[in-house]
Amino acid sequence: xxxxxxxxxxxxxxxxxxxxxxxxxxxxxxxxxxxxxxxxxxxxxxxxxxxxxxxxxxxxxxxxxxxxxxxxxxxxxxxxxxxxxxxxxxxxxxxxxxxxxxxxxxxxxxxxxxxxxxxxxxxxxxxxxxxxxxxxxxxxxxxxxxxxxxxxxxxxxxxxxxxxxxxxxxxxxxxxxxxxxxxxxxxxxxxxxxxxxxxxxxxxxxxxxxxxxxxxxxxxxxxxxxxxxxxxxxxxxxxxxxxxxxxxxxxxxxxxxxxxxxxxxxxxxxxxxxxxxxxxxxxxxxxxxxxxxxxxxxxxxxxxxxxxxxxxxxxxxxxxxxxxxxxxxxxxxxxxxxxxxxxxxxxxxxxxxxxxxxxxxxxxxxxxxxxxxxxxxxxxxxxxxxxxxxxxxxxxxxxxxxxxxxxxxxxxxxxxxxxxxxxxxxxxxxxxxxxxxxxxxxxxxxxxxxxxxxxxxxxxxxxxxxxxxxxxxxxxxxxxxxxxxxxxxxxxxxxxxxxxxxxxxx
Length: 506
Hints:
alpha/beta; five-stranded mixed beta sheet; about 25% helix; elongated
């Protein structure tokens, strides 16, 4: 295996932004107002993780941890919708765990083709054709596309092996993998030769299973010493453990029993995910390796009885001389077969979609006090998915679009809740919590570009502008004359009362 083995990375994923909607009016000869025909913007692409059997490491994501999906295209006139951004599919190894930065499990990706959307793309904005209604027949604005979600996730690779070989460095774990299977890991006579987990496929009778050696286990591994903490996660999916003990160890303070107790202590200290069998409670086999060395055979005869009292079968093998391997492989196959027989019947994977409800919590208005002393002030914060999304879709350079946002917030009940919270005209109102929050001085009777053309939801350009009748003209003339006479009467009354004199007229 390559020494460039990476089993933990932090991925910075960004979904594509949605395309903006288009504000367009159909123009044709002899049809100056052909109606709105602006198309919708396209959805931004998603960042998707997919299990790929050809990918065995997270090295590519380690080298390029920042990934962004393409944006959606803008809408165009003539009812042409923008193209959607393509999904960015990232291949990951089988057995990859996806967590958020808080350590919460998001996905357990097992099985070729398993997919998980890390960062969804933003929805495209509606064009003015989609915003038209019976009251708003020709909107002069469109909605902006939503930005794609940005999320940092931690990817961890847990090796999918049936049997895990654990033990001190140089105990012969890699040699056993090479002797039992066709795998050819790097083997040398110095500690920590193995820097990455090695996998091998073993056949014993009709049972075919995989074996992995876990490198770097030493006392204190569960606390971060050596390499064990980085690779203990690869043991979590294994059915059984095989303790590989060095029978020919030359260190006087070590022996197979003390090595076994030290490794058992580290396995017990390692915390597994909820619902997973603790490592110390899994079936195990004890192997005394290097039986080709005379001292190792003598040591095996001394400690074998004590090891068997621990309730696990003990095998004395030699990975170099290939002695005792057949019995060991069949013992491992028996554990694997028993585990597979006890496992529940496999059922087709069912994909369950649980999208977050937009109106799960509606919205809330809270009163906030900030500053101290003379600089103390009060503001009102509006939280909720709908208000936050509507703000992101609004083009604040278009007064009519701002008026449309005000209408939506009023229909949702935001103004009523602001009154209840004690807001007064001119109060500071904040919508949203993130850096894109909008701050404005609240006016319940807000005047926007929508009122320039008439009341909100109307368009004076499309109203009836026929000439008034003769009777209507006469009525208007009488009203003007009556207003002028009333004004002259008020001025005469003020002059007689002495409020102003003839000199004031000059």
